[in-house]
């Protein structure tokens, strides 16, 4: 408390309307940073639980003590504001409110407030910081304070307050941006929705496909019950295929974008919206792919410990000893299995590296070139290794007609289609003449301009 008292004279008083959760937490944080805090309340006498060191008055009295007023009241209760309109003349009125639903009202809360108090300088901000984070001080997740408003001086004052209580203010422009700021805390993992939807869709498809070909088919054909496959074998068919497809979907929009630029002969035209959206969630797609790869590794690791596998091994041993013969080691099979594991382990190591470098704390520590090297070059190597891992797993199975149950190809073949397309397209893009053209376009060259120049002259090389 002594520290608060010592610093208090250096800071201007801050007024907070509303003694609820947010008002109290903000008040506590401001007091800790040396601001004298005055609360404005409907019922000052009965206001309890206020942070020690703060004063509490009626709204009209409280706002006289400060140039900045934080309005920690829900929008539905703003009706007391018009009565204070004259007293709020020239004051900075900070709207911290959020809504329950996106675009709940025709105008943003901050714009509504500026209609109720037209003489005040309304600033929107602090709505993305929770009361809990303000109180506990663990602001890692929400230390950014988005601020917008029409009066620059008022906005600066609010940003200064944010800075001095350890937050990072970010100017978002005029009060028109308030609607976007109010919608922001209501979004639920916006960048993860598409990756999760694709992953869920693929999981369901592969599950149904694998159940039909691996569980129902042997039952119908040979009356063999392998329903226990549903626990480990079927999931372990799903995870690697979904992971590989998701990884290839990280790189597919990049190659599509390159072909679009080649076709248009310019980089100065917007990509279609769906491609923009796709490109924006590549990191999330990659991380979901990594999650599936982790599951594949775990499930593969425990395969030999399964009862059904041990039973099969023991039976084949008994069979061999009964028949008094020793099976010869197959060089081809040994190579195939070792190659399969080697490719898988290398691919997984690179996969993890890609995941680690996508973390903000790591990506902030490398420069743009290093980041591109890992995410693009090593990314394609990872995709190549994963595809090769799947191809070695399949080996010559695609040639064996018994693998096509009810005419359906084995699951790994479906998993390889998109990765192979991406790799072939990338191969075309790195052909020197194509690569030269795409580099030229990305440096700002436009075919249309050159055509114009060449059209005006009667010759052109
Ligand atoms: P709260 O706990 O319900 O507090 C709201 C306060 O508003 C009440 O304590 C009361 O203070 C005042 N109030 C209630 N009815 C009123 C009326 N009819 N007229 C005038 N004042 C009235 O809500 P809160 O969680 O602190 O949230 C306050 C604002 O901050 C909301 O707009 C919310 O969206 C925003 N916000 C909250 C958080 C959070 O984590 N809680 C985070 C970001 C933004 P008095 O009794 O002293 O008058």
SSE arrangement, N to C: HEHEEHEEHEHEHEHHHHHHHHHHHH
CATH level 1 name of the largest domain: Mainly Alpha
Distance between the termini: 80 Å
Using the alpha-carbon principal axes, give the shape. elongated
Gyration radius, to the nearest Å? 32 Å
User: What fold name stands as the CATH topology of the largest domain?
Assistant: Four Helix Bundle (Hemerythrin (Met), subunit A)
Report the bound ligands by name, code or SMILES.
NADP nicotinamide-adenine-dinucleotide phosphate
Helical content stands at 55-70%
Stretches where pLDDT is under 50 for at least 5 consecutive residues are: 1-8
Structural class: alpha/beta
Q: Supply the number of structural domains.
A: 2
Q: Number of helical segments?
A: 18
State the strand order across the main sheet.
3-2-1-4-5-6-7-8
CATH architecture of the largest domain: Up-down Bundle
Q: What is the average per-residue confidence, as pLDDT, rounded to a whole number?
A: 92
In terms of DSSP E residues, the strand content is 5-15%
Main beta-sheet strand count, sense and barrel state? 8 strands, mixed
Number of separate strands:
8
């Amino acid at each position: 408390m002594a520290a608060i008292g010592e610093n208090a004279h250096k800071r201007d008083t801050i007024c907070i309307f509303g003694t609820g959760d947010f008002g109290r937490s903000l008040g506590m944080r401001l007091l800790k940073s040396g601001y004298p805090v005055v609360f404005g309340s409907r019922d000052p006498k009965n206001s309890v639980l206020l942070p020690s060191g703060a004063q509490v008055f009626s709204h009209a009295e409280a706002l006289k003590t400060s140039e900045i007023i934080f309005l920690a009241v829900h929008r539905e209760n703003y009706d007391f504001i018009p009565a204070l309109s004259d007293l709020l003349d020239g004051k900075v009125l900070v709207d911290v409110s959020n809504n329950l639903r996106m675009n709940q009202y025709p105008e943003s809360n901050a714009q509504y407030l500026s209609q109720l108090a037209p003489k005040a300088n309304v600033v929107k901000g602090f709505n993305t910081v929770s009361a809990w984070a303000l109180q506990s001080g663990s602001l890692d997740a929400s230390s950014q304070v988005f601020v917008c408003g029409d009066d620059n001086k008022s906005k600066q004052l609010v940003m200064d307050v944010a800075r001095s209580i350890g937050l990072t203010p970010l100017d978002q422009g005029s009060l028109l941006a308030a609607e976007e700021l109010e919608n922001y805390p209501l979004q639920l993992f916006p960048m993860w929705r598409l990756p999760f939807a694709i992953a869920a869709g693929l999981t369901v498809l592969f599950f149904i496909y694998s159940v039909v070909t691996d569980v129902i088919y042997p039952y119908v054909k040979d009356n063999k019950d392998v329903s226990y496959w549903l626990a480990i074998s079927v999931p372990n068919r799903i995870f690697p295929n979904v992971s590989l497809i998701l990884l290839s979907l990280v790189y597919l929009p990049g190659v599509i974008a390159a072909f679009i630029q080649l076709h248009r002969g310019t980089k100065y035209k917007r990509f279609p919206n769906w491609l923009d959206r796709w490109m924006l969630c590549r990191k999330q797609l990659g991380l979901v792919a990594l999650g599936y790869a982790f599951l594949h590794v775990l499930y593969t690791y425990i395969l030999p410990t399964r009862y059904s596998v041990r039973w099969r091994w023991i039976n084949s041993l008994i069979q061999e000893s009964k028949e008094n013969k020793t099976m010869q080691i197959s060089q081809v099979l040994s190579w195939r299995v070792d190659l399969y594991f080697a490719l898988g382990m290398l691919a997984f190591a690179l996969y993890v590296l890609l995941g680690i470098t996508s973390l903000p704390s790591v990506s902030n520590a490398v420069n743009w070139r290093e980041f591109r090297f890992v995410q693009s070059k090593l990314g394609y190597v990872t995709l190549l290794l994963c595809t090769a891992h799947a191809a070695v797993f399949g080996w010559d199975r695609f040639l064996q007609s018994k693998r096509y149950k009810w005419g359906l190809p084995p699951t790994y073949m479906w998993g390889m289609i998109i990765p192979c397309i991406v790799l072939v397209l990338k191969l075309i893009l790195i052909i020197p003449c194509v690569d030269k053209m795409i580099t030229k376009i990305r440096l700002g060259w436009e075919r249309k301009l050159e055509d114009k120049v060449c059209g005006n002259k009667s010759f052109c090389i």
